[in-house]
Protein 1
Amino acid sequence: MTDDLSAIATLTAVTKRLGSKPVLEGLDLAIRAGEVTALLGPNGAGKTTCVGLLTGRLAPDAGTARLFGLDPRRPAVRGRMGVMLQTAGLPDVMTVAEMVALQSGYYFHPRPVAKTLALAGLADLGERRCGTLSGGQARRVQYALAICGRPDLLILDEPTAAMDRGSARALWATVREAADAGTGVLLTSHDLAEADSLADRVVVLDRGRIVADDTPGAIRAQVGGSVIRCRTRLALAVVHAMPGVREVEAEGAELRIVTRDAPTTLCRLLDADPAVTDLRVGDATLEDAIAALLAPPHRIAA
Ligand SMILES: Nc1ncnc2c1ncn2[C@@H]1O[C@H](COP(=O)(O)OP(=O)(O)OP(=O)(O)O)[C@@H](O)[C@H]1O
């Protein structure tokens, strides 16, 4: 990873314990200029710990963290980074524009405050006190604080949590624009549609280890085939034995069946349970591919 010349932030062979628990084990991660990297994985996988290491909030127990070639705790490199954390309080009494102006003052070449407010979808909210904002509006202020200094590296930890779809899509557009202009972006998210449409690269973390690192298309292709969803009285094991079936999982009251041969699996399914309902067939999504990589215990895989 350290020989990756386009990398602007790296974790190399990083091991980190928190409390008595190993959280990351020998992890390599590189964030490159002009690329949106989505770091995905279930709760507790270690995503926020990676963010903590790259932003200098945490130090590795073994291995190295580098930001623009230096220790992330060095003030010289911190000014080139904008960070939007999962939780960051805003002072109730300051207005949105005052907060953005204050944060902009920490950077050498900040954007004009009005431009930052517009990019974050806050043009009409500049005079509002932060304490009166909704959850989604407060997230947009945190985004404004992350981008106001024109950072070379933008770290967004679950940026669109609490945002409505329209606000989220507007934020994606500005993130894409920043990446196209050369900013390296690290995004953590539980919204796999967000990762699929925004990321150039998806890194999947499971229990502190990387289980996939590729383009969203290449990760989807690992699953391939089709996904059938339906309600049926058939047992998982019976469906799993049907021709073409690669894996079967209970998703609430439905079954999610990944198959290499949808027509044959469908015929057999309808033969075995003519009362099957809510039947849908579609291509495997990024969510299907990641579910296959993570292998939860309640799924049967071929
Ligand atoms: N200060 C701490 N002390 C002990 N354990 C911790 C501490 N902080 C985090 N952990 C543990 O480290 C593991 C990784 O946590 P982390 O927050 O990095 O996961 P995550 O992938 O960001 O999860 P989420 O999707 O829930 O935000 C979890 O098991 C968590 O309980």
Note: The CA atoms of residues 233 and 273 lie 7 Å apart.
Protein 2
Amino acid sequence: MIGRLNHVAIAVRDIAAATAVYRDTLGARVSQAVPLPEHGVTTVFVELPNTKIELLEPLGADSPIARFLEKAPDGGIHHLCYEVGDIRAARDRLVEAGARVLGDGEPKTGAHGKPVLFLHPKDFCGTLVELEEA
Ligand SMILES: CC[C@@H](C(=O)O)C(=O)SCCNC(=O)CCNC(=O)[C@H](O)C(C)(C)COP(=O)(O)OP(=O)(O)OC[C@H]1O[C@@H](n2cnc3c(N)ncnc32)[C@H](O)[C@@H]1OP(=O)(O)O
Ligand SMILES: [Co+2]
């Protein structure tokens, strides 16, 4: 069901500093910072030859990234995003298998303008999983 690894997301306190690390120290191509209030994050994408890194800074009082950083003040890997062909079919199959889909279960528009869903980390080896329709 899952296909390509679309991105690995890293939660950070200071997205400008993290962007500088990837751009200046690691020599990667980085995007502009984009605020996404519906998701409670500001994002920067680091383009790699085989996948992307999504840098996430908290945005707003209810940001899921703020809660994550309370437990991991230095930041860290927050989620993995896998591509699927049909996100609603994938959701229905996962729910039938007993997995918890987060939120109201309906896909939201993600950072790439495509439908996304999140799956509970306790059901996936301690890793928060994002699905993005390819
Ligand atoms: C930019 C848009 C989009 C894209 O297109 O790429 C994005 O990536 S947006 C990214 C941000 N959005 C989300 O994270 C949405 C989904 N997340 C959630 O619904 C919540 O963050 C959560 C995963 C349900 C956690 O909610 P929270 O209120 O923080 O609950 P707890 O703190 O009680 O956590 C419960 C339990 O789960 C562990 N946990 C929490 N977050 C993670 C994580 N990222 N990875 C692994 N484990 C995680 C947490 O430690 C708790 O465990 P215990 O302490 O053992 O109970
Ligand atoms: Co993501």
Note: Residues 15-25 form the longest helix (11 residues).
